[in-house]
Amino acid sequence: MNSLNFRLYALPSFWEGVARIVDLGGTLNEYNYSDHPHQANFRAIQSDWEEVGADIIIAIGEFEEELEK
User: Fold this and answer.
1) Is 35 strand, coil or helix?
2) Which one, of 2, 4, 30, lies nearest residue 17 by Cα?
3) What CA–CA distance (Å, rounded) separates 17 from 15?
4) What is the pLDDT of residues 7-46, one digit of tens each?
5) Is the full-model pTM beyond 0.70?
6) Which residues of 4-14 are buried (b: 16+ CB within 10 A; e: fewer)?
7) What's the rounded mean pLDDT across residues 46-61?
8) Residue pair 29/8 in contact by the 8 Å Cβ criterion
9) What CA–CA distance (Å, rounded) separates 2 from 59?
10) Under DSSP, is residue 30 helix (H, G, I), strand (E, B) or coil?
11) Is the pLDDT of residue 55 over 90?
12) Which residue spans within the chain are E strands per DSSP?
């Protein structure tokens, strides 16, 4: 997963990750909020299609490498 992906959860730092080990109540969870549900849905779908596009680019590159052999 790269940094362009839409994430529901905010990406924690190393020390926040360490603190989550003892956070049995889940009080340290932070979410990425959107102003409107449609905006969140749009961002999630956009992220999905960006990943599909990235996969297609990788597949084309691998296919071209096979053709050159």
Assistant:
1) coil
2) 30
3) 5
4) 666 677 888 888 888 888 878 777 777 888 898 889 889 8
5) no
6) eebeeeeeeee
7) 94
8) no
9) 17
10) coil
11) yes
12) none
